[in-house]
């Protein structure tokens, strides 16, 4: 089974690609934005910025990772449509998947800033409830985003876990508080 890690910034086409994979390989697609919109439907377009919503997103993602791993162990390919901006997030998920006998695959979708702005604006204009994003945030996020390197994209070795964590599983449980430790 394969755990697809869909990586990219807002407007890169992650959810479109995740939906394509869902259909092409018969995968279970897990997208936290879908859950946030459903659970917090009364939020205004800026409500997702609140510290409480950030914490909710982290907990939702942790449960989706847990469900995705269980589904993959039971014979389903899984698509995590999270963005996964940080190398450590991707490393943790690659390590956990491999430790469970699941093939992790990083699917990176780059986007140029002008195209990103166009897509984000069009999405917001077309859909009520879409997350509102400013130009300043898009610039900041471009700077924060850690582009996957050739080793990650080729499925190469996972780097060592950063201190003080003993394993990537420990790191992941700290990153996603609702995710129980997976494997030693």
UniProtKB/TrEMBL annotation:
InterPro entries given in the database record: P-loop_NTPase (IPR027417)
Keywords: Kinase, Transferase
Top-level lineage group: Bacteria
One Pfam family here: AAA_33
GO MF assignments: kinase activity
Name of the molecule in the record: Kinase
């Amino acid at each position: 089974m394969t755990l697809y890690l869909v990586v990219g910034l807002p407007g890169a086409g992650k959810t479109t690609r995740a939906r394509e994979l869902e259909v092409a390989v018969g995968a279970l697609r897990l997208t936290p934005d879908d859950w946030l919109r459903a659970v917090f439907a009364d939020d205004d377009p800026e409500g997702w910025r609140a510290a409480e919503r950030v914490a909710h997103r982290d907990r939702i993602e942790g449960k989706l990772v847990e469900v995705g791993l269980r589904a993959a162990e039971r014979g389903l390919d899984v698509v995590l449509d999270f963005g996964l901006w940080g190398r450590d997030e991707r490393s943790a998920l690659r390590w956990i998947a491999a430790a469970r006998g699941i093939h992790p695959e990083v699917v990176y979708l780059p986007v140029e800033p002008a195209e990103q702005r166009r897509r984000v604006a069009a999405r917001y204009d077309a859909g009520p409830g879409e997350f509102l994003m400013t130009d300043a945030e898009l610039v900041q996020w471009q700077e924060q985003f850690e582009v996957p390197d050739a080793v990650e994209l080729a499925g190469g070795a996972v780097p060592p876990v950063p201190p003080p964590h003993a394993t990537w599983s420990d790191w992941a449980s700290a990153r996603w508080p609702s995710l129980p430790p997976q494997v030693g």
